[in-house]
Amino acid sequence: MRQPGNIAGRMRNAYPTRIEDEYQQELAARPSRAGRLVMARVMAAIETAIAEYKAKAQEERAAGLREDAEVPYDPNRALVLVQRALTGAQVGYTSTVGQINIDAVLQRARAVDALATRVQVELAESVPGIRTTSDPTVGYVLQQAWARENVGLIKTVDADLFDDLATHITAAVTKGQSTSALAELIQARTGVAERHAAFIARDQIAKLNGKVVQQRQQGLGVKRYRWRTVGDERVRDTHRAHDGKIFEWGKPPPGTGHPGQDFNCRCFAEPIFDDEMLDDSPDDTPEMRAAQQEAERRVAERAAARARRQAEEVARVAREAAATSERRAAFMRELEREAQRAQTEALRRAQDEQRALAEKLQAEVNAALNAKPGTVRLSNGATLAESPDGKTLTLTLPDGQKRLVSLEPA
């Protein structure tokens, strides 16, 4: 068995701490944004309920039906407004700031994979006689699976937060709690969700790092590893009991699993390079060259197949986007045509109404001219008054303007 120098220290320093911190901040920011959105919508709803209640209370006090209001708002009315606000907040969050960027999640997976792979290969290369190869398809499959799982977890955190807020806010509004109490409640529940999201981020990065290390070590031919902890006070007793012990990748330790598999496990697997892994045969033989070429050919084929799948996926997404764009354009054209039809119909109706009104007014004017002298009120609010000498008519419009009409022949 040959081991490189300071292997434990090199692996401890290679833990993806920076990636973990960034992912924690990213996931914890989601409940924070959702909480601010809920806060704004709910506070606006409560303010509306308070204003309505005050106005109603003033009317009842003026009528002698009430002396004073016992609560700041009507809980039943407030519940209706708050439920609308919560629904609007969730829909608005999901469609805007709450959208999940799958590419950003995948980028985290690639960064963890790249770091862990580089460290494992460097450790193996520091041992004379160890041949190192890296199958890119292993990392691709692992990254995709991890990203899909994390998208599901993120959606669950979002849904749980809105359900939790709805439950607690509904109970508080039913009791008629003040706006300050509601604000403190929303902040407290949002804080719980932020800590939970940060926990998930730490746990998922640790799990991914542990899986990459396992797959890369097994790909290098490592069958055994030495369990190592980070050595601080946060290490659990069950994990501290494993420290320094040797385990096989094919036989996970009971109760904990391999390093990184337990929740928030920061332990790592120190590879053991057994003598059977050493390649003492000549490097430059026809058989070795053929085997190496065959291995490279298979890796290239898998990489090409993966590239084809990615290209097909990109093309499919592009086709769907084009189809969606065309459907949207067709919908907008139909909307425009419908708007034009509605505008034409409205214009026609307005013209018909104006024509009918003009005919009605003309009939009223004719009737007034044929009637006895006096004042006649028209249906549009105007009045017609004939002068005592019967020579002129005074038309008084609804806005007060007056016009004189001569009845004498020109």
Description:
This protein is an alpha+beta fold. It has three domains: 7-280, no CATH class; 284-346; 374-410, no CATH class. It has eight helices and seven strands. It has a four-stranded antiparallel sheet, covered by helices on one side. It has a three-stranded antiparallel sheet with strand order 2-1-3. The chain starts with 6 loop residues before the first helix and ends with a strand.
List the helices and strands and how they pair.
Blueprint: H1 7-13, H2 17-62, H3 75-95, H4 102-125, H5 136-174, H6 179-219, E1 224-228, H7 237-240, E2 246-248, E3 268-272, H8 286-370, E4 375-377, E5 383-386, E6 392-396, E7 402-406
Antiparallel strand pairs: 1-2, 1-3, 4-5, 5-6, 6-7
Task: Sum up the structure in keywords.
three-stranded antiparallel sheet, 3 domains, 410 residues, 65% helix, four-stranded antiparallel sheet, elongated, 8 helices, single chain, alpha+beta
Beta content = 5-15%
Low-confidence stretches: none
Q: Which structural class fits the helix and strand makeup?
A: alpha+beta
Distance separating the two termini: 128 Å
Number of strands: 7
Percent helix range = 55-70%
Mean model confidence by pLDDT: 81
Biggest β-sheet: count, sense, barrel?
Answer: 4 strands, antiparallel
Overall geometric form:
elongated
The side-by-side strand order for the widest beta sheet comes to 4-5-6-7
Number of helices: 8
* Number of self-contained structural domains: 3
User: In sequence order, what are the helices and strands, one letter per element?
Assistant: HHHHHHEHEEHEEEE
**Rounded to an integer, what's the Rg over CA atoms?**
39 Å
